[in-house]
Specification:
- By secondary structure, the chain is an alpha/beta fold.
- It folds into 2 domains: about 1-140, 3-Layer(aba) Sandwich (Leucine Aminopeptidase, subunit E, domain 1); about 155-465, Aminopeptidase (3-Layer(aba) Sandwich).
- The chain has 14 helices and 19 strands.
- The strands form 4 sheets. The chain has an 8-stranded mixed sheet with strand order 7-8-10-9-13-17-14-15, sandwiched between helices. It has a 6-stranded mixed sheet with strand order 1-6-5-2-4-3, with helices on both faces.
Length: about 475
C-alpha cells in the first residue's frame, strides 16, 4: 500500500473519499450532511462510519463519513483509531484507492499513517490466497514529514509482528541472529554457545541445553552523530517455550512461538533507527534460545551461576525467561549505558492482573518509569506500574543458593521483577512485562488475532525523544 500526501484530494477520482465528523457538528461535504446527518441521524461517535454514493456530484465514487467523537476529546490516538476504522471499512468494500480529507485542527499525518498501516496488516505469508487491501491512500491537511514518520513507525510494528507471528521452525535463534546482522545502520555482534559459556552466562546457557537449536547472544549497536544519551534495550528471545522438563500443557504451548515478542520488538526498533537518526547510542540485546525438554535439558533442583556470580536454584524450568534476561541484564549494565529497558512476555501473573489492556512496568527509577508511561499514552500503548517491594524476594529465598527462579504464585509479576533487579547494577532500569499485550487470541481494537508488536511504538518514541 502506497501512502501519499496532497492538499487537493477533493478533486481526486478515488474509490472512496473519507471525511471526518465530530459529534454535534456538520461535515465538510454538503452531500454527507444531507444524507448522513439530516436524513439518517448519523451521530459521529468515534469509530462509527456512514457510506454513501456520490452519483457523480464529486470525483470520488463514494464518501465515507467517519465518526471522530467529541471535538474536545479528539487527539492523536483518536485520529489513529478513526483512520483504522475507515480503512477497515474500505477493505470490506474492496476499494483500491482512497483519500482522507480530515479536518482535525492538528496534523494527524503520523497517527493517520500508523492507523492505515495497522488496518492493512495481515500475516498471510503461508496462505495461497492473500488478504485484499488498498493500493493507494492519500492524506490531506497533513505535513509530508509527519506521514513519513508514521510510515516509519508502521514499518517497525510490521517488522516485529511478522517475526512474532512466524512459526518457531522459521524464527530460530540462528535466524534472529541472521536478521540482526542484516539490519542497516547498526553494527552487530553474535556470540555462539562456546562464547556464551566463556562470558559466564550460566543461567542463559542452561535454558538452551534441551534444544537442538544452538543459542545465539545478539548485540546490536546504533550510534547517533551527537550522542546525548546511551540506552540499552533487551528483548526476551525464547523462540519456543515448551516449558522444559516442567512441560506446559498442549493448549498453553500452542502459541509459544510468541515468547520472543520482546526480541521482535527490539529488532523492529533497531531496524527503524536508521530512518530517524536520533542523537542517541542504542544497544539492542537478545539472548536467543529455545526452552525444550531434550536429553540435555536443565532440571528442577539444578544450581546455575549467572554472569555476575550469583547462584540460582531452579525451582521451575518454565520460569526460563528471567534466567536468560538475568545474564543479558548483567551484560547490558557493563556497557556504560545511562538506562536499561528490558521487555518480555515474562509472567502469566501479569496477564492475570492486567489482561490484554496494559503491560506491566516496574524498575528502580521513578522518573524513568513515569516518562515511559507517558510516552506510551501518547503512542497508544498503556503501561501500569507494579511494585518492587523487597518482601517479594522472600518467596525466592533458597536453602542452597542465593535465590530460586520462582516463588509464590501470589505477586508473581513483581516477584519476577525483584528477581531481575538482582542482576541490575549502577544504572537506571525499567522492566516491561508484555505477557498480556504481545499476542491476542481474538481481534481487539486496532489489531487482528496474533502478534501486536507490543512496545515498538513506545520504545521507538522514547528513544527519539531522549
Amino acid at each position: 500500500m502506497e501512502i501519499k500526501v496532497s492538499n487537493d484530494v477533493k478533486n481526486l477520482a478515488v474509490d472512496v473519499l473519507a471525511i471526518n465528523m465530530f459529534e454535534g457538528e456538520k461535515t465538510s461535504q454538503e452531500l454527507a450532511n444531507t444524507y448522513a446527518i439530516d436524513r439518517d441521524g448519523f451521530k459521529g461517535k468515534l469509530g462509527e462510519t456512514y457510506l454513501l454514493q456520490t452519483y457523480g456530484q464529486i470525483p470520488a465514487q463514494k464518501i465515507l463519513v467517519t465518526g471522530c467523537g467529541k471535538r474536545d476529546e479528539f487527539g492523536e490516538n483518536e485520529a489513529r483509531i478513526a483512520v483504522y476504522k475507515s480503512v477497515k471499512k474500505m477493505q470490506q468494500m474492496f476499494a483500491k484507492t482512497a483519500a482522507f480529507d480530515f479536518d482535525c485542527g492538528f496534523d494527524y499525518g503520523k497517527s493517520g499513517a500508523i492507523g492505515a498501516m495497522l488496518a492493512d496488516y495481515a500475516f498471510d505469508k503461508y496462505k495461497s490466497k492473500k488478504a485484499a487491501g488498498l493500493d493507494e491512500i492519500t492524506f490531506a491537511n497533513v505535513l509530508e514529514e509527519s506521514v513519513k514518520a508514521g510510515i516509519g513507525f508502521g514499518k517497525a510494528m510490521k517488522f516485529a509482528r511478522d517475526l512474532a507471528n512466524e512459526p518457531a521452525a522459521y524464527a530460530t535463534p540462528s535466524k534472529l541472529a541472521e536478521i540482526a546482522q542484516n539490519i542497516e545502520g547498526v553494527t552487530t555482534e553474535v556470540y555462539n554457545k562456546d562464547e556464551i559459556e566463556r562470558m559466564g552466562m550460566g543461567a542463559y546457557l542452561a535454558v538452551s541445553k534441551g534444544s537442538v537449536e544452538p543459542p545465539r547472544f545478539i548485540h546490536m549497536k546504533y550510534t547517533g552523530k551527537n550522542v546525548k544519551k546511551k540506552i540499552a534495550i533487551i528483548g526476551k528471545g525464547i523462540c519456543f517455550d515448551s516449558g522444559g522438563l516442567d512441560l506446559k500443557p498442549p493448549s498453553s504451548m500452542l502459541t509459544m512461538r510468541d515468547d520472543m515478542s520482546g526480541a521482535a520488538c527490539v529488532l523492529g526498533v533497531m531496524n527503524a533507527l536508521k530512518e530517524f537518526n536520533p542523537d542517541v547510542e542504542v544497544h539492542g540485546i537478545i539472548a536467543a534460545c529455545e526452552n525444550m525438554p531434550g536429553c540435555g535439558a536443565y532440571k528442577p533442583g539444578d544450581i546455575l551461576t549467572a554472569k555476575n556470580g550469583k547462584t540460582i536454584e531452579v525451582d521451575n524450568t518454565d520460569a526460563e525467561g528471567r534466567l536468560t534476561l538475568a545474564d543479558a541484564l548483567v551484560y547490558a549494565c557493563e556497557l556504560g549505558v545511562d538506562e536499561v529497558i528490558d521487555i518480555a512476555t515474562l509472567t502469566g501473573a501479569c496477564m492475570v492482573a492486567l489482561g490484554t489492556a496494559a503491560a506491566g512496568i516496574m524498575g528502580n527509577d521513578e522518573d524513568m518509569i513515569h516518562r515511559i508511561i507517558e510516552t506510551g499514552k501518547n503512542s497508544g500503548e498503556k503501561f501500569w506500574q507494579l511494585p518492587l517491594y523487597k518482601e517479594y524476594f522472600d518467596s525466592l529465598k533458597s536453602d542452597i543458593a542465593d535465590m530460586k527462579n520462582t516463588g509464590s504464585r501470589n505477586g508473581g509479576a513483581s516477584a519476577a521483577g525483584v528477581f531481575l533487579q538482582e542482576f541490575v547494577k549502577d544504572v537506571k532500569w525499567a522492566h516491561i512485562d508484555i505477557a498480556g499485550t504481545a499476542f491476542l487470541d481474538k481481534p481487539e481494537k486496532e489489531f487482528i488475532k496474533g502478534a501486536t508488536g507490543s512496545g515498538v511504538r513506545t520504545l521507538l518514541s522514547y528513544i527519539l525523544n531522549s
